[in-house]
Design brief:
Blueprint (H helix, E strand, L loop, with lengths): L1 H33 L14 H14 L2 H5 L6 E6 L3 E5 L15 H10 L13 H4 L4 H11 L13 E2 L1 H8 L7 H4 L16 H10 L2 H5 L8 H4 L17 H10 L21 H16 L1
Antiparallel strand pairs: 1-2, 2-3
The structure holds heme C (2 copies).
The site of one heme C has 23 residues, from helix 10.
Amino acid sequence: MKVLKRIIYILGGLVGLLLVAVVGLYFVANWRLNNPTASGRPVQIPTNAAVIARGEHLVHAVTDCAGCHGNNLEGKTLLDDPQLGYIAASNLTRGAGGVGASFTLEDWELAIRHGIGGDGRALGAMPSHHYAHLSDADLGAILAYIQSVPPVDHELPPRQLSFIATLLFGTVAYGDLPVTLIEHATVGGDAPPEGVTVEYGQYLVDIATCGDCHGADLRGRSPKEAETGPPAGPNLVAAATWSEQEFITTMRTRRTPSGRQLSEEMPSAYGGMTDAELQAIWRYLRHYFTQ
Ligand code: HEC
Ligand code: HEC
């Protein structure tokens, strides 16, 4: 009996230690998720009509901010899951519950190109690692447009990560968060000149976040990877074999050359890109997959 008692004490002690370790890890994870560091490089915001129109085009057809933040940028719940928690794409307007009224130029730049929210948290599900490629001029245009939209009153709850999600994203999956994927010192500068070129196509693929779903190497992501992230987009190698016209028609009509209808998971916003933009992307895909 004495031996049994001793074993029970030892086991109890081990379980206790494990609990202390897990709770300790939770606090470390939670701290990391709320204390990333990077310094930004705020941009000028010109406000003439042409720049605002350029910003509107980017937000609705290229960077597709509206796809997550809502058509009026009023914010939208993206995840509400008992196991993982709650995440909303913030209200970006100057209305009640929106960040627009209080954000400084620095706050905007840190959130969009560095992945750090207004309250200093490491943003998740916001593809800042792609927007880190935005030129100063295009970021300025996006901000000029965002500041010109009517305020929408729409309060959304703050981010609430479950115990498990905090542990996951604060430790093993921490390296997948946008803020840790960005080379902060290289952010900012000029885009390649606009045109139907491989270089400009690559810039568009970067800022349109194609790699978020189709994989950083554009060779597709698995359904397993999509479980805790964006939808699984297929390998784009097939699309690179289509003719320019077939590619443009697919992006516009959402029907592939073989007649298959694309699901809702592939954003429809890109259909609003100009011919020249889609041609540049097609050129880049061709070049990328045949080099
Ligand atoms: C794939 C969805 C998605 C897209 C596309 C997206 N966002 Fe976000 N964004 C989010 C989510 C989700 C959050 C909040 C993340 C969190 O709380 O961890 C966020 C947060 C932000 C924040 C921080 C606000 C705050 O509360 O601190 C800003 C600013 C922002 N986004 C601007 C933009 C802009 C501008 C674009 C387009 C260039 C854009 N977003 C595109 C999902 C997205
Ligand atoms: C939010 C996730 C997401 C983003 C961002 C995204 N895609 Fe997709 N895309 C998908 C998914 C999912 C499919 C598969 C849809 C289906 O087959 O029903 C798809 C399908 C496609 C197809 C059809 C491929 C084929 O062989 O059938 C092309 C072409 C394509 N995407 C190009 C792009 C380009 C170019 C970009 C960037 C401008 C982009 N996608 C951005 C999710 C995305």
